Amino acid sequence: MTHGTPDPAARDRAPAPPSRAGAPSSPPPAGTHRASLGPAPGRASVGDGATGTDGAGPAASASRAVPGDPPPRAGRPGTGDAARPPTGGAAHPPGARGADEPVRDGTPGRSEEGAGPRPRVLVLRALGLGDLLAGVPALRALRRAYPAHELVLATPAELAPVVAATGAVDRLLPAAEPGRAVPRALDWTGPPPDVAVDLHGNGPPSHRLLAGLCPGKLMAFAHPGTPEIEGPPWYAEEHERDRWCRLLAAYGIDADPADLRLPRPTAPSPAPGAVVLHPGAGAPSRCWPVERYAAVAEALRARGRRVVVTGGADEGDLVARLAKLARLPDTDVFGGGLPYDRLSALVAGARAVVSGDTGIAHLAVAHATPSVTLFGPVPPSRWGPPDHPRHRALWHPGPDGDPHGTETDPALLRIGTDDVLDALDVLDALGEAPAP
């Protein structure tokens, strides 16, 4: 969920497929390649907090070897996020961008002075904060598989600081549409990408957007609407992190779903040791009642805990209401959408983060900060944190709901304030503190 919070994704829709596999019937003009979906873009098929409802296409055979592809790598079991060093450590070899280096936003890079442009990998994931963080294992796997290539990520421009923190991306290509739709076009310049990777959805609009750039190779899930593009089958119930790692595995690239950690922020926390409450989400159906957040805040403050509240740029009224109900001082209210560096520092230095299924929950995982995440209508089996004692996922199973709904989902309403307080007590008993 974009978080903000990445919203669940909607369905991909698109015009007729290109006439040949992975490319249109005629190449675009030399110099500039602008892929377009036409006047009626579809919606992204996955988002953070919910998966799209497109059916996966029939299973396709594993991709055949293509000259220049990375060799298949032996799979390895996930080791858990606690065992994975942050970006810049041994897990990220030479060629990976350091987390403190800015991601470029401009013309393609060149391999050396006077030489031609570097080969390029284009990755499409034009969604939200939570979506980006759930895709970090796949991005790092691509970085390792193509160390000499320029890795270009098509994603919203406002995510640039997060993209830089992953240490995997060389250049950000701004790409976004209202309502989390598949971008109408990509402002791609220069030769076609050597490799294009669809980490956005299960197609066909996102497939065709990339295929229109005539990449040398396109990695994507199979879909009956784009039979010319081979790939593994899409499973709607699969966890988001595992999904994209499985996609890459089908093309011989080893990816570890536990490779989620971000480096600790250098900026100080504006509220070290506080419990962070984040009442917002991408849709009302994923927002736990603000009165219950206030009850949690009052109970924690009665125990001597500092409690702060955060919210996105469009959640000022929600944050103000919670602050008023819980009688929080102004110093403990961070509304209006904190800049990423301050939000990251706040989360990294928090005692715990309590939120719905939204971006800040993924940020807590990335910083190994204890968290309590309230799920509904989408279950944690699709968007939940890694299986680790410091992360508590609260979920009362029930019928599937609408992740874009206008009313709080019944599954969320079944979570009481005592459930949240009990989960925080469990975290306190573990004696967990934010990881160094």
Please explain how this structure is put together.
This protein folds into two domains: 169 residues, Glycogen Phosphorylase B (Rossmann fold, 3-Layer(aba) Sandwich); 156 residues, Glycogen Phosphorylase B (Rossmann fold, 3-Layer(aba) Sandwich). The chain is globular and about 65 Å long. The N terminus and C terminus are likely disordered. It is 24% helix and 14% strand. Strands 12-11-10-13-14-15 form a six-stranded parallel sheet, with helices on both faces. Strands 6-5-4-8-9 form a five-stranded parallel sheet, sandwiched between helices. A two-stranded antiparallel sheet has the order 1-7. The protein has twelve helices and 15 strands. A hairpin with a 2-residue loop joins strand 2 and strand 3. 55% of the residues are buried.
Characteristic key phrases:
alpha/beta; Rossmann fold; 12 helices; 6-stranded parallel β-sheet; 2 domains; 5-stranded parallel β-sheet; disordered N terminus; disordered C terminus; 14% strand; 436 residues
Blueprint of the fold:
Blueprint: E1 32-36, E2 46-47, E3 50-51, E4 120-124, H1 129-134, H2 136-145, E5 150-155, H3 160-166, E6 171-174, E7 185-189, E8 195-198, H4 205-211, E9 217-219, H5 240-250, E10 275-278, H6 290-302, E11 307-310, H7 316-326, E12 333-334, H8 340-348, E13 352-356, H9 359-366, E14 371-374, H10 380-383, E15 391-394, H11 410-413, H12 417-430
Parallel strand pairs: 4-5, 4-8, 5-6, 8-9, 10-11, 10-13, 11-12, 13-14, 14-15
Antiparallel strand pairs: 1-7, 2-3
